[in-house]
Q: What sequence folds into this?
């Protein structure tokens, strides 16, 4: 008993108090579109459905027991009215109903009555089937979405059966008599089938990954942080949305802050992305030591007026060409602190605090340290969605260089700061060319996002969108 209580408490302490960094909201519009697509899909599937044989026995009081088997049943016609589905607050889930479903079937029959075997074909019509199913959504200990059936009701309005061939004329009169029972048997089969498909869905959900490797360095954790929230117009899922370094798996020294998504009932779904998600990626790269680069002269475009050569440094560090003439230089650039993004209404800000260590490369290959500069820079950017692509632009707002230490004596940083700004401006122009082209919005296998809008808010980005099936035939 006690161990299980401890486990429960541990789970609570893990999940409570952790704010989701990603929120996904499904609106009623999205639910209705999903239902419409799902209904079309079910209708398509119904036509090709095959039923297992049904066997049973009927006691016909004066004659004895007749054993029967209905085989090879296929649907010949199906009247599939549009089901209804709604968010169901009472059970944190959905309520789905279909009313007035009618199905015509055809198949074969066999009977055994004593030593008499008989057989033929039959047509069956099942009229006015009403089914109501209520499912509850929840979260399992691993943060998967879970779904359970909490209620199912099925009513079959009427059944009509016509037997052909064999000695069907003998038992045809009994059909009316046993219609109630046949109706009951069909009724009794519907809910177990519904429940089975819900269990099936649940096992798919259980098998879903909640952690994804993004590249060789980063993994993204996406378990639910709490139970789904359902109100009468939406379903809200909170996901952890945290990147980790695959190497260190270190927890960043900052936490996800809560945020409230604006209601967007005119879109099918909304996704809110906290700045925490981006910053956790930044921290993961930082903790794995990936925010560092070595810049050498072969990376400087040949057309550049300045090269990483001590002889070319005269205008910036007058004593350098005298102390170390004609040597190539290396620059070690790295982040001193985690570069952090901050989302603000209409803009994103990024602070970068880094350092540059400069070395002269001696003819024998030895690297002689020259000086170390701190770089403090601020960037601001915008992101937007156009032509179904996520686009952006970045600008550098500030860049200051401070001399931290020097093996070549002190020097003024103004000139070299101007050079760094020029370099950064060139780099930003190249970056903006890429950002301006943008990246295609993520698409699922057969579903595409349309009418997508993006809004930057305090601490998060809200993306709202409609979805559209790419093929007309449903997702196969
Ligand atoms: C949904 O709930 C809100 C308040 O909880 C209420 O104002 C609104 O009328 C409800 N809408 C429907 C369609 O029931
Ligand atoms: C500069 O660095 C690149 C990549 O690290 C390397 O391939 C190249 O040989 C280096 N060039 C010089 C001149 O050191
Ligand atoms: C560095 O620049 C000087 C002067 O322009 C040149 O003579 C020298 O060859 C350059 N060094 C290297 C290794 O390219
Ligand atoms: C390489 O050359 C530098 C400068 O000439 C010298 O100080 C250093 O000792 C040399 N290193 C080796 C390993 O030869
Ligand atoms: C640029 O940064 C320096 C030092 O961090 C600061 O004093 C200055 O006000 C900043 N300028 C702008 C325009 O933000």
A:
């Amino acid at each position: 008993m006690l161990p299980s209580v401890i486990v429960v408490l541990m789970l609570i302490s893990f999940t409570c108090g952790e704010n989701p960094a990603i929120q996904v909201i499904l609106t009623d519009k999205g639910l209705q579109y999903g239902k419409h697509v799902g209904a079309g899909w079910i209708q398509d599937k119904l036509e090709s459905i095959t039923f297992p044989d049904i066997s049973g026995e009927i006691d016909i009081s004066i004659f004895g027991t007749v054993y029967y088997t209905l085989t090879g049943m296929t649907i010949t016609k199906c009247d599939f009215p549009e089901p209804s589905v709604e968010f169901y607050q009472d059970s944190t889930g959905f309520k789905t109903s279909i009313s007035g479903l009618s199905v015509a079937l055809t198949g074969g029959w066999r009977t055994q009555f004593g030593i008499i075997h008989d057989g033929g074909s039959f047509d069956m019509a099942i009229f006015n089937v009403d089914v109501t199913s209520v499912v509850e959504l929840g979260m399992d200990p691993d943060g998967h979405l879970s779904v359970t059936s909490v209620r199912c009701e099925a009513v079959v309005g009427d059944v009509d059966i016509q037997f052909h061939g064999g000695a069907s004329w003998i038992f045809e009169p009994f059909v009316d008599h046993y219609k109630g029972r046949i109706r009951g048997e069909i009724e009794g089969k519907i809910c177990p089938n519904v429940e089975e498909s819900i269990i099936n869905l649940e096992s798919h959900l259980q098998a879903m990954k909640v952690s994804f490797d993004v590249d060789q360095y980063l993994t993204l954790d996406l378990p639910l942080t709490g139970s789904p929230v359902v109100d009468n117009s939406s379903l809200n899922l909170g996901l952890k949305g945290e990147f980790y370094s695959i190497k260190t798996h270190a927890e960043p020294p900052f936490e996800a802050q809560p945020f409230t998504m604006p209601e967007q009932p005119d879109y099918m779904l909304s996704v809110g992305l906290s700045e925490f998600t981006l910053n956790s990626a930044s921290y993961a790269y930082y903790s794995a030591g990936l925010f560092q680069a070595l810049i050498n002269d072969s990376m400087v475009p040949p057309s550049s007026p300045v090269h990483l050569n001590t002889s070319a440094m005269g205008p910036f560090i007058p004593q350098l060409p005298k102390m170390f003439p004609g040597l190539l230089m290396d620059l070690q650039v790295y982040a001193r602190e985690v570069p952090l993004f901050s989302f603000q209404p209409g803009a994103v800000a990024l602070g970068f605090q880094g350092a540059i260590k400069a070395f002269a490369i001696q003819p024998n290959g030895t690297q002689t340290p020259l000086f170390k500069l701190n770089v403090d820079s601020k960037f601001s950017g915008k992101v937007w969605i156009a032509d179904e692509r996520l686009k952006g632009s970045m600008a550098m707002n500030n860049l200051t260089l401070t001399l931290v230490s020097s093996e070549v004596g002190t020097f003024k940083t103004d000139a070299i700061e101007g050079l760094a700004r020029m370099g950064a401006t060139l780099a930003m122009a190249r970056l903006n060319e890429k950002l301006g082209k943008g990246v295609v919005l993520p698409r699922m296998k057969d579903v595409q996002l349309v009418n997508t809008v993006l809004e930057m808010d305090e601490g998060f980005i809200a993306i709202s969108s409609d979805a559209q099936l790419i093929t007309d035939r449903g997702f196969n």
User: Anything to note?
Assistant: Residues 309, 311-312, 326, 328 surround 2-acetamido-2-deoxy-beta-D-glucopyranose (ligand 3) (CB under 6 Å). The first helix runs from residue 2 to 15. The mean pLDDT is 88. The longest strand covers residues 116-139.
